[in-house]
Amino acid sequence: MVNPGKRMHILKALLELRHGPGAAILPPEITRIHLDFALRWNDGHMGPRKFWKTCLPRLKFWNPAVPMLVNRSTNQTGPALMSIYFRQSAAKATKNLTPLVQQPHSSTTNECPAPPPEEEERVVTIDMKHQHSDAILTEFLQKTGATLVHPTPDEQMEMQQVEELQEKGAVDRAIVKKYLDEKRREEKLLLQARQEAEAIKLANQ
Question: What pTM, to 2 d.p., does this model score?
């Protein structure tokens, strides 16, 4: 049986993945998403980096069938672009189109730049450079028409319980730390007193 502490951490991780910035369901005409930005955060790449870290995992959780590729490079002065690929119309989304070419893997060495659209696709881009991750997400939601996912009443209750447990844990940790600090201080004073007594004993011999 999983202990309560471990269960809380698992539940917290799951709730954080399911809900928060980026928790949204994409419309069926979106075929893939491509992000292109630099490895480091400076020169305007902080927002794209944060979007990748915080929003993209939730988007992938809710849209597992949509390929989401990230291409990064050492060119800090280069662009930071998101490419969103759409089928030409929502009606075509339900047809058996020619399959897309084999999707490349994400890359940290600029090996997988955004590919050109397929015959049945169009591309919408977002300039992410020098933008806050919240602004990137807002523009992404506007351009994709994604539907936000909100917690159910049960999930809201679980989130509240996790928060309360975290607050209680912080209080408990503070109490334990204070106790241990006091115990160490007393042990240090006791050791010091023993050393002084031993020194006096040796001096009187």
Answer: 0.69
